[in-house]
Structure formats: C-alpha cells, structure tokens
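Annotators were shown the component list below and the corresponding predicted structure, then asked to write short factual statements about the assembly.
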Amino acid sequence: MKLILPDIPNLRDIDVYIKNGGYGEIMRKAFSMKPEEVTDEVKRSGLRGRGGAAFPTGLKWTFMPKGNERKKFLLINGDESEPGSFKDRQIFEFNPHQMIEGILLASYAMQVNHAYVYIRGEYAHWFRMIEKAVADAYSKGLIGEKMKENFKPNGGGVAYSVDITVHKGAGAYIVGEESALMNSLEGQRGYPRIKPPFPANFGLWGYPTTINNVETIANIPPILKMGADAYSKIGEPKHPGTLLLGVSGHVNRPGVYEVPSGTLLTDMIYNYAQGVTGNKKIKMVIPGGSSMPPLRGDALEGVKMDAESLKAAGSSIGTGGIMVMDEDTDIVKVLQRISKFYWHESCGQCTPCREGTGWMLKVLKRINAGEGSTADVALLEDVAKNIEGRTICALGEAAAWPVKFTIQRFPEEFEAKVSSDRPHREVNKVHSLRKGGLEPVQIHVPMVERK
Amino acid sequence: MFTEQEHSEISALIKRYEKPQAALLPVLWRIQEKNGWIDQRGMEEAAKICGVEKSHVLGVVSFYTMYFEKPMGKHHIQVCTNVSCMLRGGEKIYDTMKQNLGIGHLERTEDGMFSLEEVECMGACGGAPMMAVGEIFFEKISGEEAVSVISQIRSSGNVPMPKLTVQLPELTNV
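Structure shown to annotators:
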C-alpha cells in the first residue's frame, strides 16, 4: 500500500496529479464540512507527526484558537536535516502536489489564511520544484483568492482561501526545531525559543501557528479520501498509516521505502534494502536518524518500526532514517562523527550544549587517537548527563543520547580503546590555566558501574 | 545593487510576510547569487531593504553556513562526510578532492574556479557517498568519477549532468 509515493509516472506534474483525482473530490468534500469536523477526522485517524516526536497531529491542530479574530499561520517543516533522513526530499520530487493539497486541507481545518513551506537551503533544486508546483497550482486557481470560486461551499458556508509561500533556508540543522524554524522564517538567527508560550498561542510574529512536517501533511489527503477508520487500521494501531523509511549505510539497496507502520526492522534491512553488503553481520543500527539511541546488531530480532515498538526496544522512531553498520565498523569513530555534527550544529544559546558538545568531541578524539584513559569513558557519560534535560531545545538530548546509549550498549568498543594505565587528563583547562598560588583543581569524575 | 525590476520583485516578496525582516534570508540569497558572496555592501543593502540593523544582518549571515563571508569559487564543491556517507567512503572522496584541487575546507583555487567544503548531511544518505557541485547532487559517486566531474568542468566550463538523481526503488511486494 502506497499512500504517499504511489507508482504513478510524472505525478509531480499538476495535470497528472489532477487526472488521478487530486485537488478534486477530497477538497470539495472537506470544504463542505465544518473546519472542526476535518480536524476531528484527522484526530480519529490516529495520525502522528513524522518529524521526530510522533505527536498526534489532530490533537496538535485542536490547540489552535478557533474563530478568525486573530491571524493564524501554518508552517510546514521541510528543513529535513537529521543525518540518515532523506524522505521529505522524495515527496518534494515525486509527489509535491499531495503535500500542497494537504496544506490546503490543514489550513481549512484550522482556518489559516497563509501557510509557509520552509525548505532547507541544501535542497535548492527541490526548492525550485516546489516553487514551480505552487506556481502551477496558483495559476489553476487552486491556491489563493480564486479558491473561493473554484471550491464554493455548497452548504452556504463562508468562502475560504489560503495563500502559500515557499521559503528557502540557508544551512542550519537547528532550524528543524519548530521554534527555531519560526525565528529563521522571521529573518533571525535560528535560535530555539523557550516554551511556553507554545506556537499555537504565540508563533510566527506572535500569532497562533501550527508547525507540521512535510510527510505528516502529505498524509492528510489520503486520510480524508479513505476516511479515518480505514486509515487507522493500517499498520500498528497506536501509530497507524504508512511510513517513509530511509535505509542507508552498509546495505545493498539503500533508499526510501514506503511501508505500513510496524514493519519489522529486519524486514527493512534484509528484504527491502536487500541485506548487508558483503553478507556481513550487523554490529549497530540507528533506527531513527543519528540522534536516536542505537540498537545492537544482536538485538534486532522482532523490533518493529513504529513509535511504541521502538520505544519498548529502547530507541525511538525519530525521522525513520535507518542507518546500518556492519561488523567491521569502528563504533567509537562513528560516535565521534556524530558528536562532531552536534558540536557543529549547536546554536550556542545554552551553555551545557554549546560547551558540552565540544567536550564530548574532544574526549572522543582523544580515545580514538589511542590516548584515552578509563576515566574518559566515565567523563563522557558525565558530560552527556549534564547536557540532557538542561537545554532550551531537544538538541541537547540529540547530542547526549548517542553518547550515553552507545557507551551503555557497546562498552566493549570503548574498553578496547582505553587503558587504566594512562593518567587522568586535566579535565578542565580553565583551572589549569590559573596561575599564582592556586592549586590545580582535580575534577572528580564519578565512576559508573556497568553491567 | 539591484535593478528596478529586482527591487519590485523584492517588494512583492516582502508583502508575503507580516514584517519586511522575514525577507532577509531570501534577499541575502539574491545578493549571494549576484555577487558570489555577501560583502559589507551587500549587508548594508539587505539591512536597508529589510529595515534591520546591519549588525543583525551580520549575525544572520554568520549563523547560516550557506552564506559566504568571503569570495568562493565559481563552482562550489561540497562533500559530505557524515555517518551514512562516511560508512560508504565519503572521507575518501573528500581527500581525493582536496588533493585534486589542491585546496582545503572553505578554500578557493587560485583561478577562482573551484572552492571546497566538507559538509554535514545534505539529505542524500540513500545515495552515499555524495558530492554536490553548486546545487547539483552527484550520488553514489566514486573517487574517479568525482575527479572526472572536475576535469569535465575544467575543459567545458559546464557542470555535467549526474548519472544518478534521486533513486526511488521500485517495489512490488508492499
């Protein structure tokens, strides 16, 4: 079953999309319903966000104030930047109009009159595709003022229209965080905002705003087409629908696959991606993009790809970017690369993240250079612990989790690289730089017992 | 800096947002497309158009990695070394490019033709390893192919079309 990326040639072309039922029956049906009824349908479908947190979409929509006293905005998050995640790009390329139709329906449900689509700067090519798709829809009177004529409410309701603006980012992972996304769109540095206030009350320019992921919004037309009941029966009941899962790393056929939620992780790797290159064993799999806790290769049996099952397995669905690493992979080196990424992308607002990501990278470099002591592993865990939960946004967790869980699940990889003979490094350079009478301070590093 | 036509396009763009400041990123993109990088004059212009302080513009330009604060090559080469690419040899591609072009991270060749950047994930993990020339992605690329892309640009002045674009595997059994 393929709801988001069906095998229809040239579906990106607006005429082909319309010929296949796009911008037609579903829109007329939805526009004859009350806006709350559309939201209710989405709520009943059980659709959960595809951007990482898997928050129930319909519920999110109900947070928006009703009525039209205040301006309201819809912001589509197409900043897809999580390493291992490349699914939204397929929607931009192969089915852009389904996303646009989803925006029109969602906007109607929340009575939004202007929606923005924020696309990461690296996707310049795909940004142009979406710009063209939106322009095509405008010229056919499917977006903007002309909607009022083309989709006349037959129940005598108020004619409705929405505008769509496509906006290009300029390279910053942190902008994928919803409040940073709003700041970036407003023309500021991409700093996450402190919550509350939440976007549904105080979003873009202080107006109520809902932020949805590209894949989430592309799910709206199929939901309204098949009805909430039918949709809620696809895949796992607690996280229904099809998911776009990207498989990358050491597999024979990497790519994005649309599968019902709850598909086995091993099925993704061995069936869809056609197994591990060179028929090797798997050492590690990151199931949801690089910030999610990694799974051991010997613990993949029976793990299903949906939010609840992965949570039970000790990880998270994230953005559905499955990264597979074979038995010859140097896990500590991979972790160093992951840590370098979060160090590079930390926006610098919160001290634990700004400083901690750099510290973790430094220690990992030391371990990989063969100069690590046993205490370094405990130090890594300690720094990670002091970042987690102490930052404005989730980048803190994104940086801390890979370190924390890789050490927890692959202790042998670290033990092989460190030695207890090596002296404790002076951990805090600031103290050692202090001269004149002050004793050098030895930082106490708590040792954690590991099973 | 901008022609009258461009100014009217920018005014139309500004109207799509609640405040002119929101047009800052698109305006900076236009400046970079025109000049190749964003200089002091460009920042002053952007500040004037968007009604913000020049210091704010500098803050924005330096925050986002894709705005250049110094002149870059006519063809900007980006090689990803993040995890998915690293697992499939992205670092080797980057080293090959460093050698071939004789430049390092965010440097420019003397003739101004090329600049090089080691980048974070560009969303081409399924096509790893990858290299981008300007906005064109070359996926599942080998070291030799990467070198051949460079020599083709050197001889013809044009960027060749990539062999592979996005790959959507055909599925029958879903």
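Statements collected:
1. Chain B has seven helices and five strands.
2. Chain B touches chain A through 50 residues (CB under 8 Å).
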